[in-house]
Amino acid sequence: MKHITPVSRFLLGFFSCAVLVACWQQAQQPAQAQVAAGTGNSAQLTGLPDFSALVERATPAVVSIEAEIGGRSDTESVGQGPGLQPGGPGSQDQDEQMEEFFRRFFGQPMPGRPGPQGPQSPRGTSFGSGFIISKDGYVLTNHHVIEGASKITVHLDDRRELEAKLIGSDPSTDVAVLKVKADGLPVLSIGDSQALKPGQWVVAIGSPFGFDRSVTAGIVSAMGRPSLDGNQRYVPFIQTDVAINRGNSGGPLLNTRGEVIGINSQIFSNSGGYMGVSFAIPIQTAMNAVDQIKATGTVSRGQLGVQIGDVPTDELDELGLTKAEGAYVGGVLNGSAAANAGIRPGDVITAFNGQPIVKSSDLPPMVGALKPGTKAQVTILRSGRKQTLPVVLSALDQAAPAVEPGRTAPSDNAAAKIGFSVEAVTPATRSRLALPSGGVQIAQVNQRALSQVIAKGDVVLEVNGKGVNSVSDFNAEMARIKSGDRVRLLIRNNESTSLLTLTMP
Asked: Is 504 helix (H, G, I), strand (E, B) or coil?
C-alpha cells in the first residue's frame, strides 16, 4: 500500500468536502425552486429590495428647512422634540422627557462638536425637512417645523438657498405650505396612502441631525393610529418602523414606486431618540389641508358635535352589541349638527357615510375631512335597533372633548342617595337651556368628586332611560334602584346633553 503524505491527506479531505457541498447544493436546488415558485396564494419573499433607483429619482425634490424662530421661550410645548429646546437637545431634564413621551422632533445641527444626540444648533433656529410638490415652488412640511418662524429658508438639493413665504399652516394636521420663487423645480408624485397595507416597504428621506437627504427604510407597521397626545384627532397616522429622528420632520415617506404617501411627523420614544416606532401623516389627509390652504390660507372642518369614547365592554348587552365596536356617544353639544339630526347620548355610532367605525378614534378623521355644510349619513345603534340619520355638518369652532364611557362617581349615603338634591326646574333655567318641559333641576351637590362633573342649575332629564317630569318622578325612579346598581343620568347644561353614570350606595 502506497504511503499517503500529510499534504495528500489534506488535499483528499479538501476535495471530498467540496464534492459533498456540491452534492448538498444540488439537492437543495429543487426545494429552493419550489419555494420561489410558491403554491396557491402564498406571498413569497424573493430577496431584499434595492431602493437606489428610487432614491436617485426622489432626492432632488427633498429639501432641508431652516426656520428662525422669533420669541420662542426656553420651554417647549408637548409634542416637540424630545428634551429639546431652542438651545439644543438634552436641555430639559429626564422627568420632562418621560412625561412628554409622544413627541415631534426638530433637527438641531451646528458645525463643531457632535455629541451622542447629534450636533446642536443656535438658539432660536429650528431645522426640519420638506419636499417640493409643484414646479413653481410650493413646498410641503410640518407645521411644528415653522411654527413661530420670522424667517424660513429652504435649502435645495442643488445647494441653492431660497427664502420661503409661509402660505398657511394647519396645527390640527401638522401641515404647512411654503412657497419659494423658482421655476422648473423637481417634484415628487403624490401616491395613494389609502392603498397602504401593513407589511409593505416604505422609504423616508430627510435631514436627521442636519445630515442632508439621509435615507432610511422599513415597513408599514399599522394604519389609522390615533394621536397619543390628543392634539391631532383628525389624523389617522401611518405607523412604521422606519428610523426617524430630529430633523426628519416634514420629510416625505415614499412607497416603492417613489410616490409620497405620508409626511414624517412624530415618534414614540422614552429616550428622546428613535425606538422603532414612528408616525407619518397620510398624504391624502395632508393634501386635503393643502388644497384649502392654497385656496384660502386656512383650513375649515366639519363638526358633528358629539363627545365620544370607546364602547364600554361591560354594557354590550344593554347596547345591543356583540362586540365592543363603534363610537359611544357620551354627550351631544347643544345646537350642534348631531343634536339637530337627533343623535342622543347613549347611542353608538357604527358607521359614517357608509364607512364602519371600529374605534372611537376612527370617527374624527372622517368628519374632519369634510367641509362645513356637507350632508352626511350617520348610522347609529340605539337600544339594539340600527338606524341611519341624515346630518348637515356644522363648522368646527371648538374641539369636543372625549368622554370616558361609564365614568363613575362615588355616592355618599342613603339619605343623599347619590350625592345631590333636586328641585323643580325654574322658569329662568328653562329659558336658559331652551327646555319647554320635563326634567328636575339640581339644587345642591354634596360631594366634591361629583361637583367636578355636575353643578347647581344642571337639569336631569332621564334616570336609566326613563324621563322625569317632576321631583316625585325622580324620587320614584331612584327608589327602584338597588344598592350597588348603576344609575345613568341624562343631564343637560349650558354646553351639552350628556350621560353620567354613578353607582347607588
From this structure: coil
- Per-residue 3-state assignment (H helix, E strand, C coil) for 414-483: CCCCCCEEEECCCHHHHHHHCCCCCCEEEEEECCCCHHHCCCCCCEEEEECCEECCCHHHHHHHHHCCCC
Which one of 174, 212, 347, 458 is the catalytic residue?
A: 174
| Total-model pTM | 0.66
pLDDT above 90 for 73: no
Architecture in CATH for domain 302-395: Roll (2.30)
The topology under which CATH files domain 53-296 is: Thrombin, subunit H (2.40.10)
Closest CA to 173 of 314, 345, 365: 365
Going from the C-alpha of 216 to that of each of 98, 205, 276, 370, the distances in angstroms are 26, 7, 12, 34
Please give the pLDDT value at position 37: 41
Is pLDDT above 60 for 232?
A: yes
How far apart CA 418 and CA 173 sit, in angstroms, is 42
The domain ranges of the chain are: 53-296, 302-395, 420-503
Q: What is the pLDDT of residues 454-492, one digit of tens each?
A: 888 899 998 888 888 888 888 888 888 877 788 889 998
Domains 53-296 and 420-503 agree in fold: no
Q: Which three cell numbers stand for residue 431?
A: 329659558
Annotation says 183 is catalytic: no
* Separation CA 389–CA 471 (nearest Å): 33
Select which of 249, 360, 361, 496 is catalytic: 249
Catalytic residue (choose from 64, 129, 143, 144): 144
Q: Does 227 qualify as catalytic in the annotation?
A: no
The DSSP call for residue 249 is T
Q: At 351, which helix (H) or strand (E)?
A: strand 348-352
Burial of 282 (0-12, 13-18, 19+ CB in 10 A): buried
Per the annotation, the verdict on 249 as an active-site residue is: yes
Give the tens place of pLDDT for each residue, 326-353: 999 988 988 899 999 999 998 999 999 9
CATH architecture of the domain with residue range 420-503: Roll (2.30)
Q: How does pLDDT run across 130-174, given as a tens digit for each residue?
A: 999 999 999 999 999 999 999 999 999 999 999 999 999 999 899
Lowest mean pLDDT among 108-117, 214-223, 456-465: 108-117
For residue 428, which of 340, 491, 494 has the smallest C-alpha distance?
494
C-alpha cell read off for 458: 344642571
